[in-house]
Design a protein that fits this description.
It is globular and about 55 Å long. It has two helices and five strands. It is of the alpha/beta class. A five-stranded mixed beta sheet has the order 3-2-1-4-5, with helices on one face. Helix 1 runs parallel beside helix 2. The chain has one domain (6-101): Ribosomal protein S11/S14 (Nucleotidyltransferase, domain 5, 2-Layer Sandwich). Pfam families: Ribosomal_S11 (PF00411).
């Protein structure tokens, strides 16, 4: 008889301003969530890779307390914190079984906003 392991789904939405992580069970019910803003990072600090790694470690600790041992990771968005959030999850002791990218991109749809000139 093998070792029972509880697997969940981790959704990482990484925008240019924040990174939001949601842990769900296989049925899709949210079990826990974390974001860079909920950990106390404000304004420009929310978009840093360090903040998203801290959010990943925080959510990983919560997931271990709830009995999860492995997660499937679904990435969405092109923010700076998408890779470091995965690194934080792995550092917390959770096993990553699959990484999928579900970022939407237009096939020449709406015109994008103009580039910032600073």
């Amino acid at each position: 008889m093998g070792i029972m392991r509880k697997e969940g789904i981790l959704h990482i939405h990484s925008s240019s301003n924040n990174t939001i992580l949601s842990l769900t069970d296989l049925a899709g019910a949210v079990q826990a969530w974390a974001s860079c803003g909920s950990l106390g990072f404000r304004k420009a600090a929310r978009s840093t890779p360090y903040a998203s790694e801290a959010a990943g470690e925080h959510l990983g600790r919560i997931a271990r307390q709830k009995g999860f041992s492995a997660v499937r990771v679904y990435l969405k968005g092109m923010g700076r914190g998408r890779d470091s959030a995965c690194r934080g999850i792995a550092a917390s002791g959770l096993q990553i079984s699959k990484i999928m990218d579900s970022t939407r991109f237009p096939h020449n749809g709406c015109r994008p906003p103009k580039k910032r000139r600073v």
